[in-house]
Specification:
With 345 residues, the protein is mainly alpha-helical. It has one domain: ABC transporter involved in vitamin B12 uptake, BtuC, CATH 1.10.3470. It is built from 14 helices and 6 strands. The strands form 3 sheets. The protein has a two-stranded antiparallel ribbon. It has a two-stranded antiparallel ribbon with strand order 2-3. A two-stranded antiparallel ribbon has the order 5-6. Strand 5 and strand 6 form a beta hairpin. The longest helix is centred in the C-terminal third of the chain and has 27 residues. It is globular and about 75 Å long. It starts with a helix and ends with a strand. The C terminus is likely disordered.
């Protein structure tokens, strides 16, 4: 077997390694973890994967541009609190979070929270592309700002009583199957098609691979990055709608830690932190894997501190896999004015 053939096989294995891991982990948990394989528990896995999956779609789109979004959990926190604040009936007892008293219809509140998410993404995109601010600091700061607003609105208290019409997206079931899971799967299919078949998908990958080359090809890199953040903000708000509909309760701490999960799921699924490479299909496998692991650890009642450590280990393994994929990227030999050089492509 020649070296080029060997490299192609190794790269093919690494590209699909996540699905092999998903099957192996599922098989192991099915045998070793009590009640893991029950229908009710598998639905719980999918329910967790639905909210995380929506966030991961947004994160994947941003990662493809060579950026990342640390604000997602802040968007989720604010939109859940804001939605309840706008819809709930004010409390009559002393103390606790007080609703606005507007008691708005869900059909008014839903567009409002989605627009809030998109506005957050637009602001981030403007600060990064126009004001040349550091993306890590901007998105981290935005997460803190959004969660701070949620704390102010809710007074750090629990608010309950979201109306059934609002809860439909997160809590409804059709013949026992959660609507939220079906919507998330549909989103993955639509976004996967758009990334592979649309001009926008080509723009995302081109900008992530080489922003200067993308600009020379006629793509507006600044606009593409801003759009990616707007979509990510929308997905964060949509995930908030979905989660609140399932829990029927809001608190400003909702979503804590989910940002790292979205990055982990994306990278585990083969989305490159360097931009330009990856797919939502792989990211979907990463979502399923993390959801199964979280669920299994809860079933065996493992110490929460171990859960955090295991999540960190998973992220390190994902980075190792990404590094190996980069190592085995095809190379092309070409000659320039200085002689023969080797350049990775």
């Amino acid at each position: 077997m020649n070296n080029g053939r060997k490299i192609d096989l190794v790269k093919l294995f690494l590209d699909n390694f996540i699905w092999i891991i998903v099957v192996l982990v599922f098989t192991y948990f099915s045998v070793q973890v009590p009640n893991f394989i029950t229908l009710g528990n598998l639905i719980n896995v999918l329910l967790h994967a639905s909210v995380l999956g929506v966030l991961v779609i947004g994160q994947t789109i941003v990662l493809l541009t060579g950026n990342f979004d640390l604000s997602a959990e802040g968007v989720l926190s604010l939109t859940t609190v804001l939605a309840m604040w706008l819809m709930a009936v004010p409390r009559t007892d002393a103390g606790g979070a007080q609703a606005s008293g507007l008691i708005l219809h869900p059909f008014i509140v839903i567009p409002i929270i989605l627009l809030v998410g998109m506005l957050s993404g637009w602001l981030i995109g403007i600060m990064i592309t126009r004001l040349k601010m550091n993306g890590f600091i901007v998105t981290l700061a935005m997460q803190l700002v959004l969660r701070g607003i949620a704390l102010l609105i809710s007074n750090a208290q629990i608010m309950t009583g979201s109306p059934p019409l609002f809860n439909w997206m997160g809590g409804a079931r059709i013949n026992g199957f959660p609507v939220s899971v079906g919507v998330t799967l549909l989103m993955f299919l639509i976004v996967n098609y758009l990334l592979n078949q649309s001009k926008f998908g080509r723009e995302l990958r081109a900008v992530g691979a080489n922003a200067d080359a993308a600009h020379a090809s006629g793509f507006d890199a600044k606009k593409t990055v801003t759009r990616a953040y707007i979509i990510s903000g929308f997905m964060g708000a949509f995930a908030g709608w979905m989660l609140l509909g399932r829990l029927e309760t809001s608190i400003s701490s909702l979503g804590v830690g989910m940002t790292l999960e979205t990055v982990a799921a994306s990278v585990i699924g083969g989305v490159s932190l360097q931009g330009g490479l990856g797919s939502v299909g792989g990211a979907f496998a990463g979502v399923i894997l993390l959801s199964m692991i979280d669920n299994a650890l809860n079933l065996i009642d493992i110490d929460p501190f171990w859960v955090q450590g295991i999540r960190g280990l998973i992220i390190l393994v994902a980075l190792l896999i990404e590094a190996q994929k980069f190592r085995y990227k095809p190379k092309v030999i070409h000659e320039n004015e200085n002689g023969i050089v080797e350049k990775a492509i």
